[in-house]
Amino acid sequence: MSDFSGIKALTFDVFGTTVDWCGGIARESRAMLGPRGHSLDWVAFANRWRRDFLPAMDEVRSGRRGYVTMDQLHREMLDPVVAEFGVDLSDAEKDQFALSWRRLDPWPDVVPAMTRLKKHFILAALSNGNTALVVNMAKRSGLPWDVVLGADFVRTYKPMPVLYDSAPLLLDLKPSEIMMVACHMWDLDAAAKQGLRTAYVRRKDEYGVGAPIQTPAKGAYDLQLESFEELADALEH
Amino acid sequence: MSDFSGIKALTFDVFGTTVDWCGGIARESRAMLGPRGHSLDWVAFANRWRRDFLPAMDEVRSGRRGYVTMDQLHREMLDPVVAEFGVDLSDAEKDQFALSWRRLDPWPDVVPAMTRLKKHFILAALSNGNTALVVNMAKRSGLPWDVVLGADFVRTYKPMPVLYDSAPLLLDLKPSEIMMVACHMWDLDAAAKQGLRTAYVRRKDEYGVGAPIQTPAKGAYDLQLESFEELADALEH
Q1: How does residue A1 score in pLDDT terms, banded at 50, 70 and 90?
Q2: B131 to A173: CB separation less than 8 angstroms, yes or no
Q3: How do beta strands B122-126 and A122-126 pair?
Q4: Which among A193, A204, B65, B223 is most buried, taking Cβ atoms within 10 Å?
């Protein structure tokens, strides 16, 4: 049994872990394109929009490209998607549509559990999202962040070590006093390398109901849970 | 009558404007030193601790010194103060005492008014305080920030333009969509130069009850108010 009594802050991945990007983008896409006569597989549309996200961030991480925000990447990635699905939108409409990613809902367990956790811990968004994206999303859905550590502060993307290092630096804590919460193993593995504690939360519907996800081996992380409620149960003391 | 309908975010100065540093440090100093037999003029002690704050920041602003956080400046500035007041503390005690600046209370009008304003605007701390300092203070007193823009992100101090520029950049807004709220004219003057709207809130007791403060000429700022309640009244629409 691990001892979590020294933990003072929780850093959360946002897209997938805290909010349901797939369901949210499917909903926003239907709302935008349905009235224009499109009847698409909205979950497939959402997944296609997200598909090139990791390679797009890798251009920045590698230094092949200067920093651009996640908002900008969402806008750029939209062009090939609408072309592929035969959707005709003006540039101004695409600019607006790309901001759908600021209107994602938290998974149902998130706000109640974070409200419990907020009494005991500093709750920080440690996201690849830029500050405006994460703040506007929180404002709409009531995510009770104490602090938003946007990728635009450090101008690169996870899993670069500098993102994880920014949490103890800015919060004036030891890495071991911080627990990274994420549904992606690559994120937790990188956090652990920088000395953060780790909590894996399974999000079985991240890519849509029934779509496969990778799951970690038993014991790979300090905690492996099914929800933020379980996280609050494990950490409340 | 100015039109404030385009304003989307409010950026607040923290020390003096949002929290009562003088009363808080007087209280914390009494709690720390009273039981050791000291009976000082606690308001004078607080003002003396704060006295060299502007020149200390200027060392950093000018580039004569590399960036150090406000937490570190509070610790450094404590040494001559305790010597002057004849107080004997160990280094570890001084380290702890310096964190008193994380335990300041908001002025009584602040939390109710910010709670009203939070429904309509992004509320950002735009402080010379470092993130840990501002976040821990907010946590203790319930300041409902949507986002904390700490000076440690940009590694210098107000009134350097880069601090004010960081708000529209990170919030993805035009400068004119942001209103700076402060009780110090130098802060508002610098914000206005970067295109932010300005609200002066008078804090007549900033340096202690009855101590003189500078007040602006009529019409110097977009709003000139006596409290955050008046700010909420002026901006709610």
Answers
A1: low
A2: no
A3: unpaired
A4: B223
Secondary structure class of A82 (helix, strand, coil): helix
Residues A41-97 have pLDDT tens digits of: 999 999 999 999 999 999 999 999 999 999 999 999 999 999 999 999 999 999 999
A95, A135, A165, best to mutate vs chain B, most B CBs in 10 Å: A135
- Give the nearest partner residue to A146 out of B133, B138, B173, using CB atoms: B138
In this structure, CATH architecture of domain A21-102: Orthogonal Bundle (1.10)
- From the list B85, B168, B101, the residue with the least C-alpha distance to B141 is B101
Task: Give the start-to-end residue ranges of the domains of chain A.
Answer: 9-20+104-235, 21-102
Per-residue pLDDT tens digits for A175-185: 999 999 999 99
Look up residue B159 and give its amino acid: P
Q: Quote the CA–CA distance of B114 and B29 in Å, as a whole number.
A: 28
**In angstroms, what separates the C-alpha of A95 from chain B's closest C-alpha?**
13
Cis peptide before B159 (omega within 30 of 0): yes
Alpha-carbon gap: B47 to the closest alpha carbon of chain A (Å): 26
Among A69, A71, A135, select the one facing B146 at the smallest CB separation: A135
* Contact list, A152 vs chain B (CB under 8 Å): 169-170
Query: What would be the CATH architecture of the domain defined by A9-20+104-235?
Result: 3-Layer(aba) Sandwich (3.40)
Instruction: Work out the widest C-alpha separation in chain A, in whole angstroms.
Output: 56
Among B122, B153, B172, whose Cβ lies nearest the Cβ of A153?
Answer: B153
